[in-house]
TrEMBL record:
This is dolichyl-diphosphooligosaccharide--protein glycotransferase. Pathway: Protein modification; protein glycosylation. It is found in: Endoplasmic reticulum membrane. The chain crosses the membrane at residues 23-43, 93-113, 125-144, 150-168, 180-205, 211-235, 247-272, 278-296, 308-332, 379-412, 519-543. Residues 588-647 form the STT3/PglB/AglB core domain. GO terms for molecular function: dolichyl-diphosphooligosaccharide-protein glycotransferase activity; metal ion binding. Its EC number is 2.4.99.18. One of its GO terms (cellular component) is endoplasmic reticulum membrane. InterPro entries: Oligo_trans_STT3 (IPR003674), STT3-PglB_core (IPR048999), STT3_N (IPR048307). Residues 457-510, 760-791 are annotated as: Disordered. Residues 474-487, 496-505 have a biased composition (Basic and acidic residues).
């Protein structure tokens, strides 16, 4: 009886060691996650350190302006706000046309801080919202990856996401755009879905619907979630992985999530009426049919089950055919088949360039180049395939979701460079899994082959403690009836003894596992070299990410810099121009420019604009494009009819700024020509080439955009050499008859012109012209129509 007593005494010791080790691992993981959060926040502060605390890009200025209105007027005025300073003379209903998640989040943070007597300005809160949520996104990545492959993979994926350049580009301090909070909402929604799938908890299913609601409030990319999850559910059903946990994870999301999504004004009934959502409803029907089949299989005999299945399949097919017929009828009645223009651009990459040039004109809607992948995800591009392979060892419901996520995100990122942002979390998760599995294999191989390693049982104590405990408990249970009642042994106790004899001992199990690991172990030298290479790869990734955060993605587009032999040059022309408009024009004056600068003009100059970055009205944008593409007089008539007083153009020919209006001009021609047929792109091209030199076409040399950009340009160097196009311009000396220059910034990057007032009519000339034409006018119809300036 001594051996069992010894083994029994060893059980609490092993259990205590495991408890202590798990507790220490939990505390260590907590502190590592805190450091990862600090890293994710601090690496995004280069823009503030190098420049200043300022809002970046174009769209963030609109979000900042809306947040200012929310904090001043309140939530009810925000929902009912009609903005008459945009899209003149149409205006815009802000509450019903924006995704309010970002604004409400920043407004809530500002309110909480002020409630705690921390007097931060709205601008400061907006600047630092993205870095804060990048830390949240890193923690959400840890939770998601932990559910798939464990805590080690979760920590690795979290630290990779904290530094990945693709995510940094959209979450630096000052990048106050929807993606700042949407990526966190995306990852957290996926985590709660996987958590529900693993646990079957209705509590997590409800939280998943709420997280999906927050995602809908934050970004139009929520359609990615409501299509990816149904794809995964359908994959599980087809591969025979249906379970009640799958049903609980999906059904509440569709019902509750759709109801909540319909509450967002910008979405409304689109949550049930557009083709982007139909896949979720179709899979919702399918999963109920499958659930019903499994239910009747459990209560019927095999013979009755076959009959019932035949009936259910027949009725189910009839219902599905009816639903599909209704959906096809609804889709066919729509010119775009129920899809939005951006969704069609993702499914057919050539759609936007053919039919919606306003979408194709946006630089972030262009397909990425191969160097873009190396720039934005760096070495993760090489680790992703290894992570996909690791997800198949073994393949679970959670790991199959990760494989589906990375496959779809790779496709969409190849269509639109903006969606590299969606690829980044998937790449970090799969790369974290690959690195974690590689480190486990390599360190395990080294540990087995180091001299002085303890016995097999001690090496594998952590992994086999549960088996040892179970075996010892069985021994104790088998010994107990022998000591108490040897004469009254039941059949059950005898059966347990037989099972105990047949069951291998814990030591045998430990030895078997150790032998397997020895067979799979790599040579010591190869393991050490491979481990060193992985560390070097990680160091290279860190260096690249820090460089991207400090140099590539930290500069705000509102303030530009360049380095030359003379040192660092700062170009603050945009704020200089907006400040001039704010202080030297009337409050009610209207400013016309290309739509890229609409948000900044409204937010920084506080002046009414004709078009802005919302691009909801293609005809209005085409009108501005037509004016810029027309001769001076015709352009003046168009702008005058819109009550425009000032025209703003961006010109980079003097300093070499490539993103100016001359480089964007062909898109103005295409968009304008799509609505007004008299604008034809070939008229602006010489032998199919876009030129501004002496070989340029007369239509190009006489259009308004050319004149406003190059007016007095020859006075700068005497040659009128354009540093962006790298040529001398074709028409150097000309005068403006209907516009006058009122302001040009220091580096000529922004030029502002004022429309001249219409000339007064001279009564004598009018009478003279009437007397000359009186004889001929009698034969013509009276009251001729005024010529439309747009045709």
């Amino acid at each position: 009886m001594a051996a069992p007593e010894t083994s029994t005494a060893a059980v609490p010791t092993l259990h205590t060691n495991n408890t202590v080790r798990n507790a220490f691992g939990g505390v260590l993981s907590f502190f590592i996650l805190l450091l990862i959060g600090v890293l994710a926040f601090s690496i995004r502060l280069f823009s503030v350190i190098k420049y200043e605390s300022v809002i970046h890009e174009f769209d963030p200025y609109f979000n900042y302006r809306v947040t200012q209105f929310l904090t001043k007027k309140g939530i009810y005025d925000f929902w009912n706000w009609f903005d008459d300073r945009t899209w003149y003379p149409l205006g815009r209903v802000i509450g019903g046309t924006v995704y309010p998640g970002l604004t409400l989040t920043a407004g809530t943070i500002w309110w909480l801080l002020n409630s705690l007597n921390i007097p931060l300005s709205v601008e400061t809160v907006c600047v630092f919202t993205a870095p804060i949520f990048s830390a949240f996104a890193s923690w959400a990545t840890y939770l998601l990856t932990k559910e798939v492959k464990g805590a080690g993979a979760g920590l690795t994926a979290a630290v990779l996401l904290a530094m990945v350049p693709s995510y940094i580009s959209r979450s630096v301090a000052g990048s106050y755009d929807n993606e700042a909070v949407a990526i966190f909402a995306l990852i957290f929604t996926f985590y709660l879905y996987i958590k529900t799938l693993n646990t079957g908890s209705l509590f997590y299913a409800t939280l998943n619907s709420i997280a999906y609601f927050y995602m809908v409030c934050s970004w139009g990319g929520y359609t990615f979630i409501i299509n990816l999850i149904p794809m995964h559910v359908l994959l599980c059903i087809v591969t025979g992985r249906y379970s009640s946990r799958l049903y609980i994870a999906y059904a509440p999301l569709v019902v509750l999530g759709t109801l909540l999504a319909a509450l967002v004004p910008v979405v409304g009934f689109n949550a049930v009426m557009t083709s982007e959502h139909f896949a979720s409803f179709l899979v919702f029907i399918i999963i109920h049919v499958v659930a019903f089949v499994y239910y009747i299989k459990g209560i019927l005999s095999p013979k009755m089950f076959k009959v019932a299945v035949t009936l259910v399949v027949s009725v189910g097919l009839a219902v599905c055919c009816a639903v599909i017929a209704v959906l096809i009828a609804l889709v066919a009645s729509s010119p775009t088949k129920g899809w939005s223009g951006r969704s069609l651009s993702l499914l057919d990459p050539t759609y936007a360039s053919k039919y919606i040039p306003i979408i194709a004109s946006v630089s972030e809607h262009q397909p990425p180049t191969w160097p873009s992948y190396f720039m934005d995800i760096n070495v993760l591009a090489f680790l992703v395939p290894a992570g996909i392979i690791a997800c198949f060892l073994p393949l679970t419901d959670a790991s199959s979701f990760v494989v589906l996520y990375i496959a779809t995100s790779v496709y969409f990122s190849g269509v639109m460079v903006r969606l590299m942002l969606v690829l980044a979390p998937a790449a970090c998760i799969t790369s974290g899994i690959a690195l974690s599995e590689a480190f486990d294999a390599l360190t395990g191989s080294i540990k087995f082959q180091l001299p002085g390693v303890s016995t097999d049982a001690e090496v594998d104590a952590g992994e086999t403690s549960s088996d040892t405990t179970e075996a010892q408990n069985d021994e104790v249970k088998a010994e107990k009836p022998e000591e108490t009642s040897k004469d009254r042994r039941s059949k059950k106790s005898k059966k347990k003894e037989r099972e105990h004899v047949e069951r291998p001992s814990a030591k045998a199990k430990v030895k078997t596992k150790a032998e397997k690991k020895r067979l799979l172990a790599l040579p010591l030298e190869a393991s050490a070299v491979s481990l060193l290479l992985l560390i070097v790869l990680g160091a290279f990734y860190v260096v690249h990410c820090v460089w991207a955060a400090a140099e590539a993605y930290s500069a705000p587009s509102i303030v530009l810099t360049s380095r030359s032999r003379d040192g660092l040059h700062v170009f603050d022309d945009f704020r200089e121009a907006y400040s001039w408009l704010r202080h030297n024009t009337d409050v009610d004056d209207k400013v016309a420019s290309w739509w890229d600068y609409g948000y900044q003009t409204t937010a920084m100059a506080n002046r009414t604009v004709i078009v802005d970055n919302n691009t909801w009205n293609n005809t209005h944008i085409a009108t501005v494009g037509t004016a810029m593409s027309s001769p001076e007089k015709a352009a003046w008539e168009i702008f005058h009819s819109l009550d425009v007083k000032y025209v703003l153009v961006v010109f980079g020919g003097l300093v070499g700024y490539p993103s100016d209006d001359i480089n964007k001009f062909l898109w103005m021609v295409r968009i304008g020509g799509g609505v007004f047929p008299h604008i034809k792109e070939p008229d602006y091209l010489r032998d199919g080439q876009y030129r501004i030199d002496s070989q340029a076409t007369p239509t190009m040399l006489n259009c308004l955009m050319y004149k406003l950009s190059y007016y007095r340009f020859v006075e700068t160097d005497g040659k009128a050499y354009d540093k962006v196009r790298r040529t001398e311009i074709g028409k150097k000396y000309f005068k403006l008859t209907h516009f006058e220059e009122v302001f040009t910034t220091h580096h000529w990057m922004v030029r502002i012109y004022k429309l001249k007032a219409p000339k007064n009519r001279i009564r004598g000339k009018t009478k003279k012209s009437k007397s000359k034409t009186s004889s001929s006018s009698s034969s013509k119809t009276s009251g001729t129509k005024k010529k439309n300036p747009w045709h």
